[in-house]
Amino acid sequence: MKKVDSFVLKSFIGPLVFTFFIVLIILILQFLWMYVDELAGKGLEFKVLAELLYHFSLTFVPMALPLAILLASLMTFGNMGEFSELTALKSSGVSLQRIMRPLMVLIGMLAVVSFVFANNVLPYSTAKARTLLWDIRRKKPDINIQAGTFYNGVPGFSIKITEKDPESGCLHDLIIYDHREGRGNTSVTIADSGYMKTSADESGLIMTLYNGYSYSEISERTPNPAYRKFPSRRAYFKEQTIVISLSGFDLERSQDGMFKSNAAMKNISELTFYIDSLKTRYNERVSFQFKEYNETKIYSERYFVRNEADSSAGTALPTDKPFDVRKLYDSLPVTEQRMVVVKAIENLKDANAYISQKNEAHHFEKKAIRRYEVEWNKKITMSFSCIVFFLIGAPLGAIIRKGGLGTPAVISIFFFVVYYVISLSAQKLVEENVIGTLAGMWASSYILLPIGIFLTYKATTDSVVMNVDTYITLIKKVVDKIMSFLRAGKKHWRRSE
After folding, report:
1. Pairwise CA distance, residues 99 & 460, whole Å
2. CB count, 10 Å around CB of 50?
3. Nearest to 157 by CA among 42, 230, 246, 39
4. Mean pLDDT of successive 10-residue segments in the chain (497 residues)?
5. Crossing angle between the packed helical segments 443-460 and 406-431, to the nearest 10 degrees
6. What is the phi/psi pair of residue 145, to 5°?
7. How much is the pLDDT for 318?
8. Which residues are paired to 46 by β-bridges?
9. How confident is the model at residue 317, as a pLDDT?
10. Is beta strand 157-164 parallel, antiparallel or unpaired with respect to 150-151?
């Protein structure tokens, strides 16, 4: 049996490593596709890009591992079924569960490793990746002025060139609007040609202009627009140098603790502490607001009519004894009855606004608690999905008996999409407080796990539930019966004629 275990493990580990890196590369390419607009044109060094991809690739590991297990198990058992190795083992008295046993041990170990990784490495790498991405987003793009359009990338300036010599870098027919004073297009420089380059320390942009004019409007202090004379200044130059600060164009690194309050950057113990703290604060706040509402609203509304009657009658009515509201209301004059109704309506509107405001605040507090609960459960569900996907992939590969990367890849993508859609939809419902956290975050597991158990049972009994030839043969039989029925009907119709 040790040889069988060794053979199964060797057959599985190779495809697992291969598919894991393929899935990881696909996820990285998806990330680049999503953020290519924010990364392009920033002049980032290769070291910065490599650091960003490294940290984000670590965040993709808990997602890539279950899909790799599903694909590898399909390939392994599909190859064993296609080359009759499963048949030989079963004929020797080795059951499918016994063949899967060493892999179940391996998958269990991988699930534990996945949990440890998600609990310790994932928060750190997520914090690093998000912080670096935030810094890249804040970085201004490199200066890349195109001919024929206004370039507004330099703060306080709008620059346009007609032509740019790619060899010498000479710019022709420049128009530069200076907006640093915030008064609109009141200062403009026009030059026949010029050059642009950054300073030695890359802290400024040096523009050397030739043969041009500078126009600027002088601000007036005349309050009456009718007496404005619109003074201006015009200067001709043969050569002029303008230095513009490039602050913000360099990558400024933020501190690592910038997003430390985010739920995705915490481990199980930290999430548990935050959940308990938020729940305690939420319960205390709800109790206090309910008590406050009872004391300030309900109590005052209950005795408002009695106080009105007391003031109108000039006698002191006891406020601690029951009374007939209708009788007291009818005893008031008509004008005071109207005042009572108006006051009651105002109190109801105030109470309704108060309840709506507090309800919305409670909803946001619950959503905050749900986010931490979602991350707490996600660290476990992603690890448990390794076992679920193996229980689906291994028996399914034994049933379809197709190796390679084609058919297993299609089936793996289908099940992973189903798992992802269920998980994402249930997570949204949990965060909106529509369903419970356990019911939502474990929905994909308790939906797909019975499927895996059912497929394992079918593979153990050599079922042909996923055999394409079986369905083709069934379709042919149905078509033959239909055709024979039509021929019999046609003969009966001819005899009747």
Report:
1. 11
2. 11
3. 246
4. 82 90 90 78 75 89 90 87 79 82 91 92 87 75 71 79 82 86 81 81 78 82 65 84 69 64 83 86 79 61 49 47 66 79 82 78 81 89 91 85 72 84 88 84 89 83 59 72 73 62
5. 150
6. -85, 125
7. 47
8. none
9. 45
10. antiparallel
Strand partners, 244: 205
Alpha-carbon distance 156 to 150, whole Å?
A: 13
Q: What is the pLDDT of residue 222?
A: 65
Nearest of 123, 119, 125 to residue 57 by alpha carbon: 125
Burial class (CB in 10 A: 0-12, 13-18, 19+), 343: middle
The 10 Å Cβ neighbour count of residue 88 is 11
pTM of the model: 0.67
Question: What confidence score (pLDDT) does residue 351 get?
Answer: 76
Residue that is written with structure tokens 């330099």 in the block? 154
Amino acid residing at 209:
L
325 CB-near residues (< 8 Å, 6+ apart): 305
Residue 390 in contact with residue 107, Cβ under 8 Å?
Answer: yes
Helix, strand, coil fractions of the chain, as percent rounded to 5: 65, 10, 20
DSSP string, 334-390: HHHHHHHHHHHHHHHHHHHHHHHHHHHHHHHHHHHHHHHHHHHHHHHHHHHHHHHHH
Helix H, strand E, coil C: the string for 132-162 is HHHHHHHCCCCCCCCCCCEECCCCCEEEEEE
Determine the Cα–Cα distance for residues 362 and 431; give it in Å rounded to an integer. 13
Output Rg (C-alpha) for the chain, integer angstroms: 38
Q: d(Cα 171, Cα 173) in Å, to the nearest integer?
A: 7
**CA-based torsion, 416, 419, 425, 428: positive or negative:** negative
CA pair distance 295, 102, nearest whole angstrom: 66
| Cβ–Cβ under 8 Å, residues 179 and 203 | no
Evaluated on CA atoms 250, 256, 257, 261, the torsion sign reads positive
DSSP SS3 for 315: coil
Helices (H) and strands (E) in the chain, counts: 15, 6
